[in-house]
Amino acid sequence: MRAAKALFALPLAFLLCASAIAQQPAKEAAKETRIRPEDLPTSGLISQPGPTFKVSSKGKHVTLIVYGDQRFTDPANIRVTDPVARRLLVAKLAEEHPDAILLNGDVPYSGDNVDDYRVYHDETASWRDAKLNVFPALGNHEFHGDPSQALEHWWSAFPELRNRRWYSAQVGKSVYTISLDSDASLLPDSDQQNWLSAQLKTLPKSIKFVFISLHHPPVADVQTHINISHNPRPNEIALRDYLSSVAPGLHAHVVVCAGHIHNYERFSQLGVTYLVSGGGGASPVPVERTPDDLYQNTGFPNFHYVKFEIDGDSLTATMIRLNKTAPPDQQWTEMDHFKIPQ
Length: 342
Known about the structure:
Layout: H1 2-9, H2 12-33, E1 53-55, E2 61-67, H3 83-96, E3 100-103, H4 114-123, H5 125-129, E4 134-136, H6 147-157, E5 167-171, E6 175-179, H7 191-201, E7 209-213, H8 234-246, E8 253-258, E9 264-269, E10 272-277, E11 304-311, E12 314-322, E13 332-340
Parallel strand pairs: 1-5, 2-3, 3-4, 6-7, 7-8, 8-10
Antiparallel strand pairs: 2-11, 5-6, 9-10, 11-12, 12-13
């Protein structure tokens, strides 16, 4: 009892300091043992050959829409995302009524918060009403918090993807989409890279265009001052190098669509088109554009989506930008336009 009295008689500042010192090693140990998304096992995931899903289309015309970094979350949170832009984009895509929508990751703001998925569900009700085919890719925000728990939230939000972190879909006869998880290894001989290789080696002969969607970009404007942490990483550079080696031998054109950078960029390397399309609602970030970027417009911000229209052997793509402050009939502007093959 006397020892207890003596302890409680110590100055509060001393106790707080001692507590902090005692907890510091525990915190450091927690950091060292914290499970990262790339640490989760992948050998048990479903990775069967052939398309995971099949989407029928009417005739030879196929419309595909790509965009990322929506960050669905509490609309009161205007610091990390723009709920007005986010909702306008969702409504516009419902009007477009494409054959498929590819989401490039960071669909929720925090994957450990199930409420963010409820916001996604509520704000995209028009997509379900229109029976749109939506194919999301995992981003780093999907793994916020405990990665295992966050992944379970993802699979609960998209039950058709359970036990998959990568998958594919054939849209009509001519389009094949592949959704990758850039939080898992894309290095040579990884589970994901082996699956991707098998997918590309067994493409149906009718496929003219392959769309690969993932969150972290394999090619981007390398920054020296702004958002340096979002520059291409070795994991995605390995994907770029792999595609450079196999794309020339494919009978289909390859388009890679990424996000992570909250802006728009376009590149072409060794016959592969690389896009950064991260204008889905997350707080915009300016970029310093390098000479290799085929989009040099300095307009900002770039809330946008990219619309692909495929007719037989030709593909036409348009980046459509939102100006949310303009009158409704002037909010949407075609800012970039390209064709494949060019």
